[in-house]
Amino acid sequence: MVGNYQFQGVGRDFQKNLLGAWYKRLEDAPKTGTPVAYLFISGNIGELLRCFGFELAYPEVNALQCGIKKIAGDLILKAEDLGYSSDVCGYVKNDIGLAASGNRGPFGTMPKPDLLVCNYSGCNTYIKWFEALAELYGARVFLLDVPYRRTGETLRREDLDYVIKQLEQLAAVCAEISGVKFDPDRLREQLEYSRAAEDLWVKILHSAKHRPSPFDAFFEAVFFMAPIYVLRGTKECVDYYEAAWKEIEERLAHHIGPVSDERFRVVMEGPPPWPNFRNFWELFKRWGVCCVASTYSKVGGIWDFGMRHDPTRPMESLAEYAVNCYTNWDWSLRRSMLKRYAEEYHADALVIHSVKSCRAFSVGQADVREHFSKAESLPTLFVESDLADPRYFSEAQIRNRIDAFFEALEHRRVAGAARPAPLRAGPASPTKSRQA
Amino acid sequence: MSFIAEPRTVRYVAGVDVGTRTTRALLLNEEGEECGRISRETGARPEIAAEQTLQELCIHCGLPREHIVYIASTGYGRYRVPFRQIQITEMTCHAVGALRLFPETRTVLDVGAMNSRALRVADTGRVIAFRMNDRCASGAGRFLERVATSLEIQLDQVGELSLRSQDPQPISSICAVLAESEVINHVTAGKPVEDILRGAHNSIAERVIALVRQVGALPEITLTGGVTRNQGLVAAIEERLGCRVNVSPDSEYAGALGAAILARQRWQRLENSTPASRN
Amino acid sequence: MRGQSAVGMNGNFWDSCQSWDELVGRCREAAFDVAFPTVRAWKSAAADTGGRVVGCFPVYTPQEIFAAANCLPVNLFGGRGQIEIDHADSRIQSFVCSIARSTLELGLTKHLDAFDGFIVPSICDVARNLSGVWRHNFEHSFTFYLHLPQNVESEAAAEYFRGELERLRTEVAQLTGAPITDTALREAIRTYNRNRALLDELGARRAARPEQWPSSQIYSLAAAGNVLPREEHNALLERALALGDAQQRPKRDAVRVALRGAFCEQPPLELLDVLEDAGCAVVDDDLQIGARFFQQPVAEEGDPLAALAESYLHRTVLTPVNNPGKRSRNEDLLRRCREKSVQGLIFASPKFCEPALYDSVLLRRAAEHVNLPVLEFEYEEKMSVFESVRMQAETFVESILFFS
Amino acid sequence: MLVAGVDVGSTMTKAALLDENKQVRALAMVDTGANVVRAAERAFREVLATAGFEDWDVTFTVGTGYGRYRVPFGDLQVTEISCHAKGACFLFPGTHTVLDMGGQDTKAIRINETAEVKDFAMNDKCAAGTGRFLTAAAQVLGLTLEELGTVAGEAKKPLKITNVCTVFVEQEIMMHLARGCAVEDVLAGVHSAIAGRTIALLRRVGLEEEITFTGGVARNPGMVRALEERLKLKLNVAPESQHIGAIGAALFAWERAAHGEVSKRRNNSEGRELASGGEA
């Protein structure tokens, strides 16, 4: 069966190799004497830092890896032993726990940072996170203050100018630490790569408009999106998305997708529960659910509405990108984005996975549920757990909610039809479903 | 100094620990040696329980009430002991009491029916740091009672049984009540009772040990409180700590003992100085 | 009309209070009533002059700008534990701090119908998202999201924040229909400087003789300021300082403690009483810190907005939600403890308050490093059972009194 | 034709038997206890016995409740949410909101005329304020669940209770009693505290009349009163409120049977053995 397909699995395997190589470079950084900067995914300005020869590390991504590898629980406990409350962000505790255990993770050993770039002040937790790391490593913190994108479709000039000024200050700090002089051409070259990768990534995202969707814009996207967030601005990143696009094209040609029989198309809001990623996905697959659009795949930045890095206006476009990560959007913008997704991707429902750890994401999601289930009368499922802390994932409860929700959707669909709905969820056939 | 010792009445101090279930009293003489102990049900009226416990103590030790010169009360009902000279919290008392029972104690873990506490103590008995877990599901005793009920076995057997476990089952829920359904799920999944019980004990051990770590556990660690009688829990705790813990049959009296010791200390101070008033 | 008394009586209403207890009693009536009687009184008195009422979410809002515009800025501290989270529960999840939920509940249950607007400073992720939820639920009322720079050392920040204040000034002018002059702003700054000075004086006197100035009582005096025009609050505080010294209370054998964590969500008054009952004398705290956010007076000359911006960036009390820049939270706290000869440090964090919970870890480490005993517990504005706090506080006191 | 519904709840397992005219022929209820499978069997056999039938008389059986996948003789599993909606709508056709308060879960369900679930909300990670909370309260005070409500009715000045954690209710109640509060006032406090939480949940799905109150707690008059007082409207409460989930399940079974579907037990023999007890 798989023989018929030339490119299936490429998106996944290529991604693994890329990240593997990147982590290797990080592990070797102390030996090769490469300066290391820690930064955050949301609106990151990695291209600028790379101009100064920094190797980039993303504590969030490490936390995410620990989650998937199911070691987050122990690391979180370790951090709680150090006095961190059970109510604070699981990513932070995971990272503190990791640092407390010699920074050895499933991905290898993390080098110490030479510079901590808190590139997104919109998340107060980020600030607290790096304040703690600064004390731990005695490293310098650069805080990029990014104003919130308040209601209103147009970017505020004063916000961009403010960020640009700070980027210039950051460049000076980087030059000072790395001893490398700022080279505008190098930045332009990277932004060229960024834009190319972004074009391809958007093509992939838009492919989910097909019926059946060739790809799950949440459960698969979280893997497909990794390179554009951690390696954006490099050639291999562009190569990756070319390969990934081939895989998608092939799926389109053969009308195959993540679920063998696509029965429901949903928009997903919120991050995944990493330690229970597989079970969570299965709970939806059982019902033939495909996520055709998701907000989590935009945590780093939002391109599918036209935003691009632009070599002709380097700092300007870096600033635009920095203020345009999903959680930096006011709720009115986030609501309209969700509405647009539901319409353009022909979704049957909105699913909100509300995680306790990330207040920036979740505070107000209940209000969104209120809005869509009542004002917009779009069926909306609300489930709560966490992105890192396994203690907050209660499978029985979540399964119950998911089953009840899709039962109801199925009823609605066959309302008036002669036969009652096939209430039992049909299992997704493994032969045809990809990346399962 | 004279050659003929003048006859003088021996004076005593007492500690009265008024707990939610049981009230305990313990008597020390001037030299700080124990002269007797007694306990009874607390019931609905702590005042009365305290009064009767003290009377029984006097009878039990055969001495007139007025020979008890200083009384410290502790426990949840400490403010409801009319005849107290001072009230002291159970945490301070458990620390001092545990130190008397095991002089090398540096960490005290007190596991009660609903609340668990970890204390880091100095060699003086001073509480240096402590953590209470009075969040939901922290209650060890109560949690086990629930598990025992849902497994339809006797509470006093759960500890024993858990020790026979080959393959402990995980219990993850934060809420003691919801944890029950996990237990039931394990049962219906056909898991052996002892494995489920061990899982329950492990989950309690996890929580209380988190407290111990948060205060910076130092050996020796002494276990006090009602659940010390449950070997299963003691074993689970020792396994996770990776070291032995002190457990004494007297540990139930640790509170009363500590109160009595502090009462004596306080009384002696009063004897040779006039301390500031505390209400 | 800014001399107008909010309690609807003549300007020297507070001077008419004959005893300390009467004064404190009146403050409690005014401060903790979620029906906001003083605010309604002010609103009706100011009706003809087009006075507006704006609710301010903690921690810091440049209230001088509102005061200069014939507005009454009111510090909102949620439901003070008096209202059930009912409607707000379907807007904000249960793992979010009480103050965000109960403040929204106040709005949804018409407690704030005397209010014309709401301003949320960017103190944390919850507050930031709350601004959007608020705008969604009260589409037609004035809602302003104030960005507080988090990189205070950058000169870009000074310029940006000055601009932010300018934008606020413009929008408030639109709300009231009258421009806000620099002169009016400078006057407001003077009034607020005076207010901060009086509050600091109150704190200083308590630190000198804690038994004389019970914390829950001076808290009530300060809290009255949340719902009164500052001129009136100044009159009140002057009266309080006069009456307070006359009090005679027995000296108590208590441990001098500094209280941290209550910079945003406020604990119930009982909590303060329980702590002092248990033998703690609170000599330093960050309760309602927004009212005394600046360590030195704001410049009363020159460009008023630049002065406000400068003060925010460089003269603030350090809390978990403002950036210390070159300063250090640890040193700042330990210095204050030394100055007030504090014997023990209490971190009382509001449940689910991430900024407080993160900071307490680092601050605790710093305190233990200098052998300053630390007590940590969590509270909620709606808590009503204090047994566990009492026991922890008593144990804390005992560990310091009995063994030293 | 006969159809059955079996609702395996956390504390109680309920069964309902319907005939071809959707007439309820019998209801049964047993403690779930530790063995869900056995509980399901017992409830099923009991309901058959009451109506005087044998298991092979049953054309189709639907299992629901958290133990639904453990009903060995179930031909189909449906979540309790759909079943309570179905059952409530069957007993009270005007129902637009269903409030189900069971042992560990409280559910608010919004439905339309055809019992189609439009929206639902459940209590989250903890059992605070659920039926179990009342059970615990009853235990402390040595009252039966039925008595609870009655006693609460006598309250003069209801107490404010904030901590609705089931594990701590005991502590909190004892503390109030120790302070000399009257039992009825404490209980009234307990009820209104739960009512507060419950109504917040109802608002999430948006409180459309009529509201039908199902589940074990609906049997508690005090809870009904507390809710009605706060909502300022009457609730539908059926005498068989506890069985509504099972009845709903039976109704789903009826639909299937009406479309000619027949239980696997009818044509396979081991089905019968299964039905006649035997551990899973």
Report the major sheet of chain B: 5 strands, mixed
Strand order, biggest sheet of chain D?
Answer: 3-2-1-4-5
Dominant shape of chain D: globular
| Subunit arrangement of the protein | heterotetramer
Percent in helix of chain D:
40-55%
Unreliable residue runs of chain B: 275-279
Rounded to the nearest angstrom, the distance between the terminal CA atoms of chain B is: 39 Å
Global mean pLDDT of chain B: 84
Number of strands of chain D: 10
Q: What is the CATH class of the largest domain in chain D?
A: Alpha Beta
Number of domains of chain B: 2
**What's the architecture of the largest domain in chain D, going by CATH?**
2-Layer Sandwich
The poorly predicted ranges of chain D are 269-280
Count of helical stretches of chain D: 10
Which short descriptors sum up this protein?
heterotetramer; A: 436 residues; alpha/beta; Rossmann fold; 10 strands; globular; disordered C terminus; C: 404 residues; 8 strands
Describe the structure.
The complex is a heterotetramer of chains A (436), B (279), C (404) and D (280). Chain A has a domain at 2-182: Rossmann fold. In chain A, strand 7 (264-269), helix 12 and strand 8 (289-294) form a beta-alpha-beta unit. Chain A is globular. The model of chain A is unreliable at 418-436 (pLDDT under 50). Chain A has helices at 10-32, 46-50, 59-68, 72-81, 90-100, 124-137, 157-178, 184-207, 221-224, 226-230, 235-254, 277-285, 314-322, 331-344, 359-362, 365-375, 395-414; strands at 36-39, 55-57, 104-105, 108-109, 115-118, 140-143, 264-269, 289-294, 349-355, 380-385. Chain A has 17 helices and ten strands. In chain A, helix 1 (10-32) packs antiparallel against helix 11 (235-254), helix 4 crosses helix 5 (90-100) and helix 7 packs across helix 13 (314-322). With 279 residues, chain B is of the alpha/beta class. Chain B folds into two domains: 12-95 and 253-272, ATPase, nucleotide binding domain (Nucleotidyltransferase, domain 5, 2-Layer Sandwich); 103-247, Nucleotidyltransferase, domain 5, CATH 3.30.420.40. Chain B has eight helices and nine strands. A five-stranded mixed beta sheet of chain B has the order 3-2-1-4-5. The longest helix of chain B has 22 residues, at 193-214. In chain C, 59% of the residues are buried. In chain C, helix 5 links the parallel strand 3 and strand 4 (142-146). The radius of gyration of chain C is 20 Å and the shape is globular. Helices cover 47% and strands 11% of the residues of chain C. Chain C is α/β, with parallel strands linked by helices. The N and C termini of chain C lie far apart (57 Å). In chain C, helix 6 (155-176) crosses helix 11 (304-314), helix 7 (182-208) packs parallel to helix 9 (230-246) and helix 10 runs parallel beside helix 14. In chain C, the strands form two sheets. Chain C has a four-stranded parallel beta sheet. By secondary structure, chain D is α/β, with parallel strands linked by helices. Chain D folds into two domains: 2-82 and 244-275, 2-Layer Sandwich (Nucleotidyltransferase, domain 5); 95-237, Nucleotidyltransferase, domain 5 (2-Layer Sandwich), CATH 3.30.420.40. Helix content of chain D is 42%, strand content 20%. Chain D contains ten helices and ten strands. Chain D has a five-stranded mixed beta sheet with strand order 3-2-1-4-5. A five-stranded mixed beta sheet of chain D has the order 8-7-6-9-10, sandwiched between helices. In chain D, a hairpin with a 3-residue loop joins strand 1 (2-8) and strand 2. Chain D is globular, with a radius of gyration of 19 Å. Residues 269-280 of chain D have low confidence and may be disordered. Chains in contact: A-B, A-C, A-D, B-C, B-D, C-D.
